[in-house]
Design brief:
Blueprint (H helix, E strand, L loop, with lengths): L24 H9 L9 E5 L7 H15 L4 E5 L4 H9 L5 E5 H9 L11 E17 H7 L11 E3 L6 H12 L8 E3 L3 H10 L4 E7 L3 H9 L2 E3 L4 H10 L4 E5 L11 E13 L4 H13 L1 H5 L23 H9 L15
Parallel strand pairs: 1-2, 1-3, 5-6, 5-7
Antiparallel strand pairs: 3-10, 4-7, 4-8, 4-10, 9-10
Length: about 350
């Protein structure tokens, strides 16, 4: 088993725990008592994202790990609108496991942003790798429009991501943290493939890609077009990370994408693997253990995650760790902080 120290700083967790004083102690104990007590599901639906992104092949690899290493169980990756939709699928029981961005998971747990008034509790099996905020344009557009910092996209024709995606949720959070109004841009709600086509065709000035560093779609775009990544300037990064503990400052090294030779300063957010609270405890333990025993299968789907796919990365979870998974991490010598431990007694 690989063991390494993740290169991003461990993020503070900002979630409401089941035992929070925001609900009566009796109700908290009753809710917590049901965590991990659901029946074993033999055919597992894994909510991922679009077929051209990283979530879908990663979910497929996880399905392979489950089928090959957990007796009597199978896993099937399902294409979805990604993080926000995935959390709703978990919440209503239409998916068993989901890959989501940490900011969306935290918002769902707390009932904020897209989940205002309708909180969805999910619990982590693992934390995978950070998604990096790329503000993508072309060299010619950046020069014509003077796009030097993120705030310069105001007044442009800009894609904020597909509705229900983590891309859209993170872009919305960035705009809010910078006190920018989406009414001041010409908005398009495009997925990554559509953003790519619109940039190539001159129908778009720029767009957000909240994806793993070295993303294949961005690499392909930069191979055939003169791509420019817009920096988040110092005050912008400071404002965003101050507004939410889900985000950390990040540098995309020059050379990550063809023709983009300078470092790009931006932010990042962790991706998590989550389940509903009632997900069977022993099943959660077996899946988590099988995943870390077969990391190479996951890395075949997304090699840049190698330095992050270690047990210690769970410390970046935006939500409490499922008790079954927590048992695995305890065996690996990872001490979970109090805010990540589900309290099962009143």
């Amino acid at each position: 088993m690989r063991r390494a120290v993740p290169s991003l700083a461990v993020l503070p967790v900002s979630v409401l725990m089941l035992a929070s004083c925001a609900q009566p102690a009796e109700q908290a104990a009753e809710d917590a008592a049901g965590i991990g007590q659901g029946a074993v599901r033999e055919q597992l639906s894994i909510a991922t994202g679009g077929s051209t992104g990283v979530y879908f092949p990663l979910g497929g690899a996880l399905g392979t790990v489950i089928e090959d290493n957990v007796e009597g169980q199978t896993g099937s990756a399902e294409t979805t609108g990604a993080s926000v939709e995935n959390l709703r699928l978990i919440g209503n029981g239409d998916a068993d496991i989901a890959i989501v961005q940490g900011d969306a998971a935290g918002q769902a747990f707390e009932g904020t942003a897209e989940f205002e008034g309708s909180p969805i509790e999910s619990y982590a099996l693992a934390v995978f790798y950070p998604n990096v905020f790329h503000t993508v344009t072309l060299d010619s557009i950046a020069e014509d429009e003077g796009l030097e910092c993120f705030r310069d996209v105001l007044g442009t024709h800009y894609s904020v991501g597909a509705p229900g995606s983590g891309n859209h949720a993170t872009t919305s959070a960035v705009f809010e943290a910078l006190e920018m109004s989406m009414g001041d841009i010409e908005i398009e709600n495009l997925g990554y493939a559509e953003t790519d086509s619109a940039l190539r065709g001159g129908q778009l000035d720029a767009g957000s890609w909240v994806v793993g560093e070295g993303h294949g779609g961005l690499t392909e775009l930069a191979t055939t077009e003169d791509v420019h990544l817009i920096n988040m300037c110092d005050d912008e990064r400071e404002a965003i990370t101050a507004a939410s503990s889900s985000y950390t400052e990040h540098t995309i090294p020059g050379g990550t994408y063809p023709g983009v030779d300078e470092d790009t300063e931006t932010i990042a957010v962790w991706n998590s693997l989550v389940v509903a609270g009632e997900f069977n405890e022993e099943q959660a333990y077996q899946i988590t253990a099988a995943m870390f025993d077969n990391i190479d299968t996951l890395l075949a789907a997304h090699a840049p995650a190698e330095e992050y796919l270690v047990p210690e990365t769970i410390l970046n979870s935006p939500v409490p760790v499922h008790p079954g998974a927590a048992r695995f991490y305890e065996e690996q010598g990872v001490e979970l902080p109090e805010e990540l431990v589900v309290q099962t007694e009143g």
